[in-house]
Design goal:
The structure is a homodimer.
Chain A lengths: L1 E7 L3 H12 L1 H8 L2 E8 L15 E3 L2 H6 L5 E4 L7 H10 L3 E4 L2 H17 L4 E2 L10 H8 L5 E7 L2 H13 L3 H10 L8 H4 L2 H15 L18 H9 L2 E12 L2 E12 L11 E8 L3 E8 L3 H18 L23 E10 L5 H11 L4 E6 L8 E7 L2 E2 H11 L5 E10 L1
Parallel strand pairs in A: 1-2, 1-4, 2-3, 4-5, 5-6, 9-16
Antiparallel strand pairs in A: 7-8, 7-10, 8-9, 10-11, 12-14, 12-15, 12-16, 13-14
Chain lengths: ~425, ~425
């Protein structure tokens, strides 16, 4: 069966999809028997098209004309952002066209509305490229692990943040310096806020949590911390204690509720996720039958993301006529757990004047809130400058740590707010 | 659509499939909408069934009766080995039943014959569990990477060998000692020959090579070396030079031919595959669009393998009525490259009397065959005992190394055949 493809947006990813549909149809047909062909490209900036092989496809600057084009069976929305992307996807679904998108923000915010439109119109809405680019994590979760109850997902889902933290870890650089490198290398958007503040990871966290537990998860319920507060000292102290700092999306089922959160996390250096370096993504999934599995690859970039978009097109070509998985299923309505209830180990970096008795007062206060200390680093520095005391707690409840720090940060020898990071 | 499942063989994996079909149908239906139900179990040793929930399924000791049972839509062959497994699978396909199997040896030896029977009868033959257990590598190669030309696959595909090598690496044990541990822990079959001699890995190598390049690869064309000749000294010397020894299946396209081979390999310790430890499997795939991806998980064991079998059943349930990927495609007929043509770096451990001039003679001979040395370790030992000289070569051609060693091993100061290992 020949499947006609329409591409809305010929930028980075859209251009990659057009390249694959020009260069790699041989291997697609070899491996799957599917024949997919570019039929229509809608792009406002026609200069983007000048180096691309369009193989006679229609070119327009009108996405709605593309959607109505009878030669187009699958519409790829690759312009990103909220509007007009949402309007185009809904128009395509309502016109009976299958849709492939890489738009994680839109899915995280409006996934349910889009899924309902797809189901109503009996067409597919697919989004493998929206989470971890070339890594087939959506397929793994829904199909490869179909028989499993998911215990937990720990994901490195933003290449920019992982690149920055890797350079800080292995080259001892400061945050701002590596951010500028990432921008220069094209890993980071300008401005990079969605990446470094953790929101891009939260969008992907929302999508994976919804899929893993067949439940509605509101983006607003996911606590998010980015990596802007991480210093090279934190990276170095963490390493000294055997940890690598990574920005993780963490999704777990705990006592019938879901934990879904995004924050910098101290990962033991022997854990596989600690080996996921530079701009790569990695997702570690634990489930009841398969046990631990990990999926690794490039989470962004022109061709890796386009590879995932085309994989979705091929799946639609092979399975468009038969029953498909709905985009999202909301069988359950499971509450998102308050982060204060979270249990774990905590890294605390205190900045304090170098007096006798400081450690005693701090530990007494922590102890009063049920927090006990597993290890401690204190670096001697030159006299009269504040010193860092780094504590790693035993397993404890987050609300206790937060309450203790509220008191500690008021003590007169504490010269800066204490840095709190969570450990895996 | 309700899909009836028949399980031939209720041993380790078959028992796991029965458990999942009893305990996890809720999550399967939640995530996919598919309803799968156990209808028939055929097992000669009925005592294996006594702790399993059969939910009213028919029990027989007759696989052919199971195949003919009209309540059975999907037949799972989980007895392993060549016969009668092959006869049962062919009978099922010819009876118009879909088949799921974990039988890598049978697929590696008779994949084409089985694929032809499936295609002729317009039914599916699926085998996700045959390679790397719970890791969805078949799905990743055929579907996730459908748009990609595969450059190379490097796979740790045998948990027993990886467990043994990991213990040798991290605990300094000898081969025989760790083999006995692996047998005691139930990771190794008795006898363990298929595992430790590399043949099990070769079976999986054959399957992955066929899928990656849509070509016939004969099992006999795959050079195979196991891990029995690896000593703890090799492991230690390799580590000293920054490498971890792993048994790899290596599949690459080189100058229009396919390299497909299985042998112990020195993997740089910074490579992700070096972090795949103990009984886990990992597959590192490089391709033109997606670039590097890695898939990791348990390659064996009751529930992980059963997880993959049930994933295939669910896929059939969702897609049984529509066009499916054929089990194997043989569009091409690409030659398997002679291993003598292989280019790479080589680890050579010479055992020699401690004379002056030994290293000179060895290096001169290597040089005459175009082999130059990148690094060297020589350990001083007590007098009058042979010493080890370990050489790592620069990139060179295997036939040159082999020819040089044929001469070197005849030299009168060489007291044992030289150990040759390949590096990644």
């Amino acid at each position: 069966m020949d499947i006609g493809v329409g591409v809305i947006g010929a930028g980075t990813v859209g251009g990659g999809v057009i390249e694959i549909l020009s260069a790699n149809t041989d291997v697609i047909e070899d491996k799957t028997g599917a024949r997919v062909a570019l039929r229509h490209v809608a792009e406002l900036r026609q200069d983007l098209l000048k180096d691309l092989s369009l193989n006679g496809a229609t070119v327009s600057n009108d996405a709605l004309a593309l959607i109505q084009d009878p030669a187009v069976h699958v519409v790829c929305e690759l312009i990103g952002g909220m509007e007009p992307a949402k309007r185009f996807i809904l128009a395509a679904l309502n016109a009976g066209k299958h849709v492939v998108t890489a738009n994680k923000m839109l899915l995280a915010k409006c996934g349910q509305e889009l899924a309902e439109a797809a189901i109503k119109n009996n067409v597919q809405l697919r989004f493998e490229a929206a989470v971890a680019g070339a890594v087939p994590i959506i397929k793994a979760l829904r199909e490869g692990l179909a028989a499993n109850h998911i215990h937990s997902i720990h994901g490195i889902l933003n290449g920019t943040c992982n690149y920055i933290l890797s350079r800080m870890t292995y080259e001892g650089l400061e945050f701002e310096e590596t951010l500028q490198q990432a921008i220069a290398k094209g890993f980071a958007e300008t401005p990079p806020d969605l990446d470094i503040l953790g929101h891009d990871t939260a969008h992907k966290c929302q999508i994976l949590a919804s899929l893993a537990y067949s439940t509605r998860v509101s983006l607003d319920e996911i606590p998010v911390e980015g990596i802007t507060k991480i210093t090279h000292l934190d990276v170095a102290y963490a390493r000294e204690m055997g940890y690598i700092i990574k920005l993780l999306a963490i999704i777990r089922k705990v006592e019938g509720e879901i934990e879904a959160r995004v924050h910098p996390t101290l990962v033991p250096e022997t854990h596989l996720l600690a080996s996921v370096r530079n701009e790569f993504n990695g997702i570690y999934v634990e489930s009841d039958c398969a046990d631990a599995t990990l999926y690794y690859g490039r989470g962004a970039g022109r061709m890796p993301t386009a590879s995932a978009v085309v994989a979705d097109i091929v799946d639609i070509a092979l399975r468009g006529e038969c029953r498909a998985l709905p985009p999202f299923v909301y069988t359950h309505d499971i509450a998102v757990r308050d982060i204060g209830l979270m249990e774990g180990r905590y890294y605390l970096r205190l900045t304090t004047e170098d007096h006798p008795g400081v450690l005693g007062q701090v530990c007494t206060t922590l102890g009063r809130h049920g927090v006990s200390i597993a290890s401690c680093i204190q670096k001697s520095q030159s006299e009269d400058t504040p010193v860092h005391v780094v504590l790693m707690t035993h397993e404890t409840i987050e609300s206790g740590v937060v309450a203790a720090l509220a008191e500690i940060d008021q003590m007169d020898f504490i010269t800066e707010p204490t840095q709190l990071l969570r450990a895996l």
